[in-house]
User: What shape does this take?
Amino acid sequence: MSRRILIVDDHAGFRASARRMLEAGGFDVVGEADDGAAALDAAGGLTPDVVLLDIQLPDASGIDLAGKLMADGGPAVILTSSRPLDQLGPDLTSSGALGFIPKDELTASAIEELVA
Amino acid sequence: MSSMTPLRRALVALGIAGVLLGIATFVMVAKGEAATVPLLEATLTLLIGWSFIGTGLFAWERRPTNLIGPLMVGVGFAWFLSEFKVSEIPLAASIGFAVNSLPVAILIHLLIVFPSGRARSQLDRFFIGYAYVAGGLVAAIPTFFYNPGGDPDCSGCVASNPLLIHDNLDLVHGIFNTLSAVSIPVLIALIVHLVRRARSATQEERRSQEPVWWAGGATIFLFAAALLTNLGPESGTYDDVLWYTANFVIAAVPFAFLLGLLRTRLSQAEVVAEENVRLDAELQARLDDLRESRARIVQAGDAARRKLERDLHDGAQQRLVGLALDLRLAREKLNEDPETAAAMLDEASAELARATEELRELARGIHPAVLSDRGLDAAVQMLAQRAPVPVRIDSSIDGRLPEPVEAAAYFVVSEALTNVVKHARADHAEVGIRRENGRLLVEVRDDGAGGADPSGSGLRGLADRVAALDGRLQVNGQRTGGTLVQAEIPLRESA
Assistant: This one.
């Protein structure tokens, strides 16, 4: 059974590319969300196994959002960003997320490695 | 009266006291038998006392922190009190006798500290101290040893002295003679001191102080001369003539002071000072403007960099990131599904073209290459070509202008045309650029809805940019509708 994944990013272009990439890699992309509020809604309704979460959303910080998404046996969260790590601040690890994948290095196998 | 300041009330009270004391003194002197010509002497006394008090109060009110006013008033009161010496009331006469030299002492203080009200040197303080010790204290001592009844020279004197402690006429004469003998060289030294100061005064100081130096110097000189005749053999006529002359001259001092004061008021120095105050205020306002505009320029720079980062991040960078994923995917599909891979590569090419165009657009916003390469005229023509409404350009610039001027003028036109398109719903716009009197005039006019807000961030930023070059930006709604943006930028080469 393929893993269910939710893509949270405010750039439609990236969501589309990521969806193609992950579907090609065997993921079941159950939904997309373009901000924090929509992400919480979708995570509740769609019950994904994994959330690919952009760190800079229009209404929230992915670092803060990760904890909320994962609470009460929620999905695993993987952070992503098109900014390099040194631009993202020191507290990525405190977010509780499984890990961080730079957007341009995103592959289905990179996510599998983190989730496994 | 309730609206009067405490100072004003005190001055009015002092004025009333001065008037009353003057009248009392006048009556006393006029009725007294000590004077040779009672009415003349009484009038002279009144003239001196009132003129000192009057001009003193005037000066006090105008310059409350300056000691000159109080000193003038002090001379006037002391003068009246000293004239009590001719009174027929024994206690009044004794008091008058005791303070007889006090007005001269205060006058000397006044002359030394005019016009600032402050002693300027140790020598100043010595003369002032001497005047009060000799004229105020030592000269009062004989009062307690003088019995008018026992003085054969005293005709018309009061019969008794209530302040008498011990009758000793020799001691009285001894003190007066010693005081005169010591005071004459001191007074001469003071005259020399004042003359030297007057000579070193600036032309402006001299203008205001000269009348006082002359009247005051003459007074001191005459009193010194009068003291001198005291030492010589008795010759009543000389004594009287000298004292009367001295009295007339001393009466001139407060008017000399007033003249000096008026001259100071009307002098160039004061006009310049007032002008300076005005210019200071203007300068301060301009500095405040500059400080604010500098802060806004820094903020605008920060905001522009933030926007640039955001634009790069949200625009070209996202496209390139997506492209990276799509290319990787296409590479994976190349063998198993070449058709899908080809479609993805087509899509990637289009995406790449969009990213490139976005980067170009962004670069143009940062700084237009055509402006640096080919100058203002070419850059403005490009702006006109890219504008979605027809733009007529009327430019009489040939050759290049200083770089900051070109950039400011370009951004004025660019921002104004952007506003025309965004807000004005105009059919067409006109751009005028010309040199005039060493300035570059830039005008952008449209036939749209008008109502541009000069304090909006775009126009505000432009105004700051133009102001940084000492220029001005004006945004006017026009009577015929539409908006007129005008910039004037000085064409200094150093700019």
Remarks:
- The beta strands of chain B are 391-395, 429-436, 439-446, 472-477, 483-490.
- The first strand of chain B starts at residue 391 and ends at 395.
